[in-house]
């Protein structure tokens, strides 16, 4: 029990000091009927560091590691190279083992980092302000819809068919309980997005329009006409970005008129981690700040006039406002936010543009090669690092067949939309800077075989 | 756009206090650090990427046509920037962090090593299931131990944090009530509850009503019974509660709630006090979230990420969220998503997050549980309770301890600022504690105690560390009682003196703007 510093003699001295005969005297308030005195069934006794490491190592070995095989998965989680110094920074004990900065005088490191993170996110998204992060992109998306309801005092949102189906699923779950009305549909396997249909659907009761950018098939939608149409009816435009690296190359949603921009920050600094923890990003126009959920760091001065940072506008938050809070979220993904901001600082404007260019160039190359395979065609007119192929066969078994050949060859739309026959032949592939020439050769060979 | 045309400059003027001043604003190892935006440049980068020629024309005509405004730092500058920032932080690695109900304990580095194994860290959430059998087994194994330790029937692993877990529990309750055609509108929450409880109930579509605490710091059973009725969906209780006390009437409370057709939600934030000693299922609880980061020690990293699996009773188990990892009769593991829900989990209330929860936290928590085992986990609860009682009994003669006579406390001890000299309050004691090299306790919570100080030492503190903390507390408490106004100036030795929080809220500055831009915005 290497993590417990008290010795038996400490324990008896301390029991004596508190006036207890045995430790059970301190548990007198626990009803006898609920005491667990005997052995805990099943659970073994404590184990050595070596034994635990061995057990966990054996479980880890049962997984196919993305970095060890040709790997082309995206759909809301992306594999990029993370510089070694990013993990070094987040493992510094003063960051790793600190808590919510409730005592700002001894938490300036975290607070300044949060302030820098907020600034980076706001600039990347083209918005005035950003918060200090959410759980992930999907929960940020739902919170944005709720925020739009509060601002517009309407509760009917239109969700684009290009929005990640898991995000749609989260919103549908929550809307059942809040009574919000959501209008959703599945995408079609086409280069066309549903922008026109969305614009036609906006009416005086619409609270918000939610559009993913680039969308689930990788298509890039011009948000400006949608923003204009939404604003004309008093509705807000919420843009959802699941791949922030794209913003190194394409226009930010804020520039095109989005009122709230949310998304997933995982692809910068945070690894795949089988789905979490990730880091939700949340930005908006400054005038909406008091309706925004989540933590905020703000600049101020100390008693000597030195610049410093504190958590601020907490009157929106649950610990002050209780049932009237803007959200029940009480934490933020600060450590993941640190990884995000650290990686983005290493990249800088120049590095982010270069990384984005590299991703796009690589994706273009792979799209051209794969769409030359007989029977395979490229769905997208536009894309960043992720695009959709129409296969001559169902994509779902094709993905499993490629696993047999040691290739993790994309996400089938059949897995994402099991009810849609139209999408069954769709395969979504993400191509990042981590992909090598050999990986592409292997993918091409595997796909040729499964399509033959 | 140019960022920082003037190059590096200190963030604060050199201290004017004569010989104490330095040109840089630094004081030996106490280092000032400018903002990234004041230090970095748009043409600076800390990464080496291969050159590329973009084969353009595929971006839908939406190429970026202006700068983003993201300054970069070279690798040495970046490492130094963040290392300097880190040194402005107090952390559990530096000393006692006695935040009550937040539970800050040692972060075992084995857990970090395990979570970084490529088989866990470098696996995509949408990989075909045959390629992630080990990851699904981790989720399933951890779920098994959580059920074993809590005596409950089902567990939802996907909630991303404690408050998200509360929401999951209430959604299970709401789905169960709706399944029996029962529309109930009210959730009862004790006034001592965490603010997340009422916020969550409102978020799940309920009206919140408060139930008072009695003089002994517990839920007033009679007041609760009187309020129960056909409109009450659930009661949210924290046990051990935020006064640091176990609710001895818990079984009676559960029985009364069930008799009224409602459910018992327990805020499991304080499960570390009873793990291995009490199974919440034996107390009649229907749903409880477990903050993995508190009870099973995963890093708090400045306040997050967390992880909040929810254990539920038999009555609620059919309604838990998607997706989840199931062990199949043939020994393989399956991720049950929307597609197979109709067959395997037809009454689920749906999905609460894009993927399957905080995998990086699951590996850490599993490593922690296996390291401690059955004997170690029980020792965790016993040592955390012993340490808290040691603090309570060592300070009750110098600080008002409102519930000291209610019996032993659990893992946290509560004090108040009663008896402090004119104009002095909890915050002054807390800030003085900073100068003594300790992170302060939780202040002004729970609200039922005036000027509350909630101290949770946790089980990973040695007796020597506690004795030093107690000595510091005694000395400051005596100064406070004697009306020593110099406490108002604390902290003196921290990187910053007291910060003006009112100014920050009145004139919010939430992002950096270049001086010219900021001026133009005024």
Automatic annotation (TrEMBL), chain A:
EC number, as in UniProt: 1.4.4.2
An example Gene Ontology molecular-function term: glycine dehydrogenase (decarboxylating) activity
Keywords: Oxidoreductase
Alphabetized InterPro entries for the sequence: GcvPA, GDC-P_N, GDC_P, PyrdxlP-dep_Trfase, PyrdxlP-dep_Trfase_major, PyrdxlP-dep_Trfase_small
Function: The glycine cleavage system catalyzes the degradation of glycine. The P protein binds the alpha-amino group of glycine through its pyridoxal phosphate cofactor; CO(2) is released and the remaining methylamine moiety is then transferred to the lipoamide cofactor of the H protein.
Family: Belongs to the GcvP family. N-terminal subunit subfamily.
Organism, as annotated: Sphingomonas anseongensis
Keyword Oxidoreductase attached: yes
Protein name per UniProt: Probable glycine dehydrogenase (decarboxylating) subunit 1
Source organism superkingdom: Bacteria
Coiled coil ranges: none
Catalytic activity: N(6)-[(R)-lipoyl]-L-lysyl-[glycine-cleavage complex H protein] + glycine + H(+) = N(6)-[(R)-S(8)-aminomethyldihydrolipoyl]-L-lysyl-[glycine-cleavage complex H protein] + CO2
Gene3D superfamilies per UniProt: Aspartate Aminotransferase, domain 1 (3.90.1150.10), Type I PLP-dependent aspartate aminotransferase-like (Major domain) (3.40.640.10)
Automatic annotation (TrEMBL), chain B:
Keyword Oxidoreductase: yes
Compositionally skewed regions (Polar residues) per UniProt: 12-23
UniProt xrefs under InterPro entries: Aminotrans_V_dom (IPR000192), GDC-P_C (IPR049316), GDC_P (IPR020581), PyrdxlP-dep_Trfase (IPR015424), PyrdxlP-dep_Trfase_major (IPR015421), PyrdxlP-dep_Trfase_small (IPR015422)
Region (Disordered): 1-23
Assigned EC number: 1.4.4.2
Catalytic activity, reaction form: N(6)-[(R)-lipoyl]-L-lysyl-[glycine-cleavage complex H protein] + glycine + H(+) = N(6)-[(R)-S(8)-aminomethyldihydrolipoyl]-L-lysyl-[glycine-cleavage complex H protein] + CO2
Residue stretches making up the Glycine dehydrogenase C-terminal domain: 382-481
Keyword match Hydrolase: no
Segments forming domain Aminotransferase class V: 179-301
Superkingdom as given in the UniProt entry: Bacteria
Recorded GO MF terms: glycine dehydrogenase (decarboxylating) activity
Keywords: Oxidoreductase, Pyridoxal phosphate
Pfam family, one: GcvP2_C
Protein purpose: The glycine cleavage system catalyzes the degradation of glycine. The P protein binds the alpha-amino group of glycine through its pyridoxal phosphate cofactor; CO(2) is released and the remaining methylamine moiety is then transferred to the lipoamide cofactor of the H protein.
Name of the featured protein: glycine dehydrogenase (aminomethyl-transferring)
Species annotation: Sphingomonas anseongensis
């Amino acid at each position: 029990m290497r993590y417990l510093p008290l010795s038996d003699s400490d324990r008896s001295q301390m029991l004596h000091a508190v006036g207890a005969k045995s430790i059970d005297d301190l548990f007198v308030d626990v009803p006898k009927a609920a005491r667990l005195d005997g052995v805990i069934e099943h659970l073994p006794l404590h184990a050595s560091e070596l034994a635990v490491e061995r057990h966990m190592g054996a479980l880890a070995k049962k997984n196919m590691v993305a970095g060890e095989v040709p790997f082309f998965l995206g759909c809301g989680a992306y594999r990029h190279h993370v510089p070694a110094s990013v993990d070094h920074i987040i493992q510094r004990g003063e960051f790793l083992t600190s808590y919510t900065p409730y005592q700002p005088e001894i938490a300036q490191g975290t607070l300044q980092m949060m302030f820098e993170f907020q600034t980076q996110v706001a600039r990347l998204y083209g918005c005035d302000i950003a918060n200090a992060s959410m759980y992930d992109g999907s929960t940020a998306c739902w919170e944005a819809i709720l925020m739009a309801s509060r601002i517009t005092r309407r509760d009917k949102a239109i969700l684009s068919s290009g929005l990640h189906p898991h995000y749609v699923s989260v919103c549908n779950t929550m809307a059942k309980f809040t009574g919000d009305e959501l209008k959703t549909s599945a995408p079609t396997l086409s280069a066309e997005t549903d922008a026109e249909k969305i614009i036609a659907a906006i009416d005086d009761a619409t609270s918000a329009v939610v559009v993913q950018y680039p969308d689930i098939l990788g298509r890039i939608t011009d948000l400006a006409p949608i923003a204009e149409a939404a604003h004309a009816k008093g509705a807000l435009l919420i843009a959802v970005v699941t791949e922030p690296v794209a913003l190194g190359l394409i226009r930010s949603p804020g520039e095109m008129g989005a009122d709230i921009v949310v998304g997933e920050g995982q692809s910068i600094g945070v690894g795949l981690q089988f789905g979490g923890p990730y880091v939700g990003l949340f930005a908006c126009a400054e005038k909406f700040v008091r309706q925004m959920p989540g933590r905020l760091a703000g600049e101020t001065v100390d008693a000597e006039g030195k610049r410093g940072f504190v958590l601020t506008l907490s009157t929106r938050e649950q610990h002050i406002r209780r049932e009237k809070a803007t959200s029940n979220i009480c934490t933020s993904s600060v450590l993941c936010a640190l990884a995000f901001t650290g990686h983005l600082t290493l990249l800088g404007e120049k590095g982010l543009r270069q990384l984005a260019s590299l991703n796009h160039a690589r994706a273009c190359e792979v799209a051209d090669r794969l769409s030359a395979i007989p029977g395979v065609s490229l769905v997208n007119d536009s894309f960043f690092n992720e695009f959709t192929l129409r296969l001559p066969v169902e994509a779902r078994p094709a993905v499993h067949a490629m696993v047999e050949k040691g290739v993790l060859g994309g996400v089938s739309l059949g897995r994402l939309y099991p009810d849609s026959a139209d999408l069954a032949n769709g395969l979504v592939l993400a191509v990042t800077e981590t992909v090598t020439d050999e990986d592409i050769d292997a993918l091409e060979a595997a796909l040729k075989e499964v399509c033959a | 756009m140019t960022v920082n045309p003037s190059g590096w400059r200190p963030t604060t003027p050199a201290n004017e206090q004569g010989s104490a001043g330095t040109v840089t604003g630094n004081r030996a190892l106490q280092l000032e650090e400018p903002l990234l935006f004041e230090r970095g440049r748009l043409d600076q980068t800390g990464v080496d990427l291969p050159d590329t020629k973009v084969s353009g024309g595929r971006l839908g005509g939406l190429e970026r046509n202006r700068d983003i405004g993201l300054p970069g730092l070279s690798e040495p500058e970046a490492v130094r920037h963040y290392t300097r920032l880190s040194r402005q932080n107090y952390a559990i690695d530096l000393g006692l962090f006695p935040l009550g109900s937040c539970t800050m304990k040692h972060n075992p580095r084995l857990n970090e090593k395990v979570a970084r194994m490529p088989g866990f860290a470098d696996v995509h959430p949408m990989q075909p299931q045959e390629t992630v059998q080990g990851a699904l087994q981790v989720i399933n194994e951890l779920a098994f131990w959580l059920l074993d330790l809590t005596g409950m029937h089902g567990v939802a692993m996907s909630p991303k944090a404690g408050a998200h877990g509360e929401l999951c529990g209430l959604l299970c309750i709401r789905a169960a009530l709706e399944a029996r055609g029962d529309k109930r509108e009210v959730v009862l929450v004790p006034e001592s509850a965490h603010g997340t409880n009422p916020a969550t109930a409102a978020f799940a579509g309920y009206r919140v009503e408060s139930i008072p605490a009695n003089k002994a710091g517990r839920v007033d059973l009679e007041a609760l019974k009187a309020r129960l009725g056909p409109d009450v969906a659930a009661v949210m209780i924290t046990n051990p509660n935020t006064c640091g006390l176990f609710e001895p009437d818990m079984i009676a409370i559960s029985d009364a709630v069930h008799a009224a057709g409602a459910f018992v939600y327990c805020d499991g934030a304080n499960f570390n006090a009873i793990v291995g000693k009490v199974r919440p299922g034996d107390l009649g609880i229907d749903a409880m979230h477990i903050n993995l980061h508190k009870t099973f020690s995963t890093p708090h990293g400045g306040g997050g990420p967390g992880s909040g699996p929810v254990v539920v009773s038999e009555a609620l188990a059919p309604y838990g969220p998607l997706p989840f990892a199931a062990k199949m009769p043939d020994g393989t593991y399956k991720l049950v998503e929307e597609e197979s829900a109709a067959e395997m989990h037809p009454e689920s209330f749906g999905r609460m997050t894009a993927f399957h929860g905080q995998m990086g936290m699951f590996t850490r928590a599993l490593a922690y549980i296996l390291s401690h085992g059955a004997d170690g986990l029980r020792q965790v609860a016993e040592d955390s309770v012993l340490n808290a009682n040691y603090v309570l009994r060592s300070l009750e003669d110098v600080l008002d301890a409102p519930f000291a006579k209610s019996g032993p406390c659990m893992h946290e001890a509560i004090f108040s600022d009663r008896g402090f000299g004119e104009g002095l309050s909890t915050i002054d004691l807390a800030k003085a504690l900073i100068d003594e090299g300790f992170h302060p306790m939780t202040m002004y919570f729970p609200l039922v105690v005036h000027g509350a100080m909630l101290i949770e030492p946790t089980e990973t503190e040695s007796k020597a560390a506690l004795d030093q903390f107690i000595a510091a507390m005694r000395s400051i408490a005596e100064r406070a009682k004697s009306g020593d106004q110099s406490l108002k100036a604390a902290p003196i030795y921290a990187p910053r003196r007291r910060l003006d929080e009112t100014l920050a809220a009145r004139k919010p500055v939430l992002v950096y703007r270049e001086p010219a831009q900021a001026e133009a915005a005024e």
